[in-house]
Write a structure and sequence with these properties.
Layout lengths: L10 H19 L8 H14 L5 H9 L4 H12 L10 H18 L9 E5 L6 H14 L7 E7 L2 H9 L1 E3 L8 H7 E3 L7 E4 L1 H4 L2 E5 L13 E6 L8 H13 L1 E9 L12 E5 L2 E4 L1
Length: about 290
């Protein structure tokens, strides 16, 4: 007797597995992925499932939800589905405001005994480090004109893979097109041999910048509560209104009095708090 061919996966079960996955993603990182995003999600998981030897996404989902593979895979899944769009000197108006107004005024308003205290900047959705190292270039350059400026930069992200890129601080040379020529000369080391066509951020900036994994959905953040400037740009748009409000409230609790919160230009309308006043497009100051 010939064996019967295996029954195809039931569409309902496939949909159920996808729903389970998107619920987990929302619970862990606050990002909602409707059924219309299924093709995108499956595309982002393709490299991981193929690395594990699964020929189809259904086989991978079966491994996750029917064979107990989810716990070991969760970080890989979150890394795959998180968005990592980033550029050096992105939304440059914010950086001009930082250099021309925010930093000088913050130092000026400090008591003389605290002028040299660390000026703390947090890049809260750091991705591969482009924003954090843009900040480092600008603050290092500004320190030549403001001798009291002593700065430190923290970059956080939930994605472990992009954080490794940030820590290495090695980038394709074409990614540096937005960087001003004088900064390229001063702050980038040209690669050679196996690193030809790549550049690395100079050691003095890497020493001022550290990166750590952090989930914005966590109820508490392991971050200082006297941050001078927080960059939280182009991440709130992925959260629902309740999560947006919770994240903003946590950010405020980590700002120093008079500190600044900068969000993406499309996100200004979601920042609503009596503890903040808007001072420029997508720029808010703590009361």
């Amino acid at each position: 007797m010939n064996a019967s061919p295996p029954a195809p996966s039931a569409p309902g079960r496939e949909a159920s597995h996808f729903d389970q996955l998107t619920r987990l993603i929302h619970e862990h990182i606050g990002v909602r992925l409707p059924p219309s995003k299924r093709q995108m999600v499956e595309g982002r998981l393709r490299r991981r499932r193929m690395a594990l030897g699964f020929g189809s996404v259904d086989d991978y989902f079966h491994h996750l939800f029917e064979q107990g593979g989810l716990e070991a895979e969760l970080h890989e899944i979150l890394d795959a589905v998180t968005t990592n769009k980033t550029d050096f000197f992105r939304e440059p108006d914010h950086f001009r405001l930082l250099v021309d107004r925010i930093v000088p005024q913050t130092l000026q308003h400090r008591p003389m005994a605290r002028r040299r205290s660390l000026f703390k900047v947090w890049s809260a959705a750091a991705s591969t480090g482009a924003e954090a190292f843009t900040l480092a270039m600008l603050l290092e350059d500004l320190s030549g004109r403001l001798p009291d400026l002593n700065y430190g930069i923290l970059g956080t992200d939930i994605n472990t893979e992009v954080l490794e890129t940030a820590r290495r601080a090695i980038y394709p040379v074409e990614q540096m097109d937005p960087v001003p020529p004088a900064f390229r000369t001063r702050f980038l080391m040209q690669g050679s041999g196996s690193l030809a066509g790549q550049v690395r951020i100079v050691p003095e900036l890497r020493q001022r910048t550290r990166f750590a994994r952090m989930n914005l959905m966590d109820p508490q953040y392991t971050v200082d509560r006297d941050i001078d400037v927080i960059f939280l740009r182009n991440v709130l748009i992925y959260f629902d209104p309740a999560d947006q409000a919770r994240v903003i409230a946590r950010m405020i609790s980590h700002l120093a009095p008079g500190g600044h919160l900068l969000v993406g230009h499309s996100e200004s309308m979601v920042v609503r708090s009596a503890q903040l006043k808007q001072i420029a497009p997508a720029v808010f100051q703590r009361n």
